[in-house]
Amino acid sequence: GLNRLVNRSKNPVGAHKEITGYENIDKIIDIDQSPIGRTPRPNPATYTGVFDIIRELFSTTPESKMRGYKPGRFSFNVKGGRCEACSGDGIIKIEMQFLSDVYVPCEVCKGKRYNRETLEVKYKGKSIDDILSMTVEEALKFFENIPR
User: Fold this and answer.
1) For residues 108 and 8, what is the distance between their CA atoms, to the nearest angstrom?
2) Which GO terms describe its cellular component (predicted)?
3) Are the C-beta atoms of residues 14 and 1 closer than 8 Å to each other?
4) Structure confidence at residue 40 (pLDDT)
5) Rounded to the nearest 5°, which phi and psi values hold at 130?
6) What CATH number matches the domain at 43-142, 1.10.10.1800, 1.20.1580.10, 1.10.10.10, 1.20.1440.230?
7) Separation of alpha carbons 23 and 26, rounded Å
8) Contact 58, 74 (CB under 8 A)
9) What letter does residue 12 receive in the DSSP assignment?
């Protein structure tokens, strides 16, 4: 129902009496297990733009400033901070010829997507991987004092 009100969706609507308080909602995104964006790499944090803010926060830590790290260092899509063994995917594809391909965690980064130097940088005691591993509820609590 809310999707129909905000996005003028034609999708079927479940039974409901009334929807109120939607006036300040400008967009609704239905998230399922389909790839987000144009490639399978983005996660909800990248798609919503929250990850840009998180990368900026990491780049302002004393350790990042000392090392000369910019926000791009904390992207798993570009060289520098990502694990080069898996190109920031955190997994390695093993082609099985006549069977379905198998994906295993990267042996170098252990699935964390970043190189050791990048993971050494902490924001409030957490690495960039720790942040990406949080649930939405955990992240809301962790970043509750960040204005935005």
Assistant:
1) 47
2) cytoplasm
3) yes
4) 53
5) -60, -40
6) 1.20.1580.10
7) 8
8) yes
9) -
